[in-house]
Write a structure and sequence with these properties.
Elements lengths: L3 H92 L11 H5 L5 H35 L1
Length: 152
């Protein structure tokens, strides 16, 4: 028969092997779950980075377009101011001539220009509206001719 100390030693070793097996099996299961969670997190993270980059690209395009429109608006404003100055100078040069040699000058009779600034502003607005219509028509013709050249 086996002495009792060997029985206890065998039981202890068996218990140690079972405990180590349970530990390593549990550790392996935890590592598998961790890898699965890490993969899912990485996919989510990559999707968020891609979405952020897409939104940043759209924002950059909007800023470029906004800057272009701002420059165009400033240029149009400067052009309008220059035209208004030239119209006022023209009006002043026309109204300085008297209608008769003996009477006071009549600005409406001399140059046919309105005597009030609102009339000049209205004329300026009409002029710019006509320019906008002409520009629109030219753009349409430009597109039409470029499509004709592209189809040949």
């Amino acid at each position: 028969m086996i002495p009792s100390q060997y029985k206890w030693l065998g039981a202890g070793l068996l218990l140690l092997v079972v405990a180590a097996g349970a530990y390593f099996k549990g550790r392996h299961q935890v590592e598998l779950e961790w890898q699965k969670d890490k993969t899912a997190w990485q996919v989510t993270y990559d999707a968020q980075v891609a979405e952020t980059n897409r939104i940043q690209g759209e924002w950059d395009k909007v800023k470029v377009n906004a800057n272009d429109w701002k420059i165009k608006a400033e240029t149009a404003g400067n052009d309008a101011a220059a035209v208004a100055r030239r119209l006022r100078a023209y009006r002043a040069s026309c109204s300085a001539l008297p209608s008769t040699a003996s009477g006071p000058s009549d600005p409406d009779a001399a140059g046919g220009e309105p005597s009030d600034p609102q009339g000049i502003d209205a004329a300026t607005e009409r002029h710019f509206a006509a320019c906008a219509r002409d520009s629109e028509r030219l753009d349409m013709w430009r597109v039409f001719y470029s499509q004709l050249r592209g189809s040949q």
